[in-house]
Design brief:
The chain has three helices and three strands. It is α+β, with helices and mostly antiparallel strands. The protein has one domain. A three-stranded antiparallel beta sheet has the order 1-2-3, with helices on one face. A hairpin with a 4-residue loop joins strand 1 and strand 2.
Amino acid sequence: MAYFARGGKSFILVKRVKERDLLLFGGDQGPEVVDKGCSAACVLRACGPAPLFAALRPILEAHFLRPAP
């Protein structure tokens, strides 16, 4: 939360063992995740690491791997 509060990009990744899925929350959602747990609205839900990275790839490419002007 402190890193996010100072303008840094941060995320909270939660692995739910019983459901075997991964939930990705934005860094600004810390208090909501504490209050609501995994029922808080997540940014992304995936059934494992490979689908998580596949879903994140276009986002990362658009924001971090843009060609230099």
